[in-house]
Amino acid sequence: MVKMNTGSDCQNDSDCSLNLCRQNKCCNRDCNGICERCDVQNLFGTCTSLSKTTACVAGSCTGIIWQPPTLCDGQGACPTNPPTPVDCEPYKCDQTNAVCYNSCPIGNECAPGWACDMGDHKCKLDIGQKCTYATDCASGFCADGYCCNDKCDGACEACNLDQTIGTCTAIGLNQTDPHSKCTDASVCGDTGKCKGGNKGSGRLPETRQQYGLRSTSLCQRYPAFCSELRRVGKLSGRHDTGLLALPL
Q1: Which of 28, 101, 110, 187 has the greatest number of C-beta atoms within 10 Å?
Q2: How many separate domains does the chain show?
Q3: Is there a domain that residue 73 lies in?
Q4: What range does the domain containing 139 cover?
Q5: What separation, in Å, do the N-terminal and C-terminal C-alpha atoms of the chain show?
Q6: Residue 154 and residue 167: Cα distance in Å, rounded?
Q7: pLDDT at 233
Q8: Which of 218, 242, 213 lies closest to 229, judged by CA?
Q9: Peptide bond just before 90 cis, omega within 30 deg
Q10: Do residues 35 and 71 share a domain?
Q11: Surface-to-core class of residue 182, CB atoms within 10 Å of its CB (0-12 exposed, 13-18 middle, 19+ buried)
């Protein structure tokens, strides 16, 4: 049986003159390392070290942590110490391609606590997360130090209440207005509005006094206010004429 020269195709060691068939090529030496091959184009038959850009251990994902691939050392060996893991936050780790996402074209590529801004397809802080600027938040609103579901900068509303962080919520009765937009010592009423009226808002105060306005004019101008008065029993009927009096 005629044996093949180095560089020739082979199936078994016995096919080759040096009895070394590696990667289906008759090879000049053993060439069994992870980072060396005998079938490199234009170098068939010569055991060649793979470049430093060649992965010898594949990358992987564990939650939002990416383990980068281990690369050959360029001298035929695979380093025993893997690269430092990478935290992909604010993105998830792409389990299919074993790499961190760097955008959110679909919308589900963000790590927990983050949400996709579908305008620029970037992961930003989700509602309820601490923020400094509106641009930090996927919702586009940073209010009272938290990413909020609304602008929430009006009187007697806040986005940082303990039980509703991230949701713009009315301030309770006789609580201080955090945005200082109320008159009368900045105290809030029981409807999420100022107890003494908003500064410059023209909103009627909830103080119990007599107004020199006809109730029809009053209720046309402030329908929500009159509706609330009727609800709590301070206004009955249409009151088409006369002065509106709020009893003490």
Answers
A1: 110
A2: 4
A3: yes
A4: 114-168
A5: 118
A6: 14
A7: 56
A8: 218
A9: yes
A10: no
A11: buried
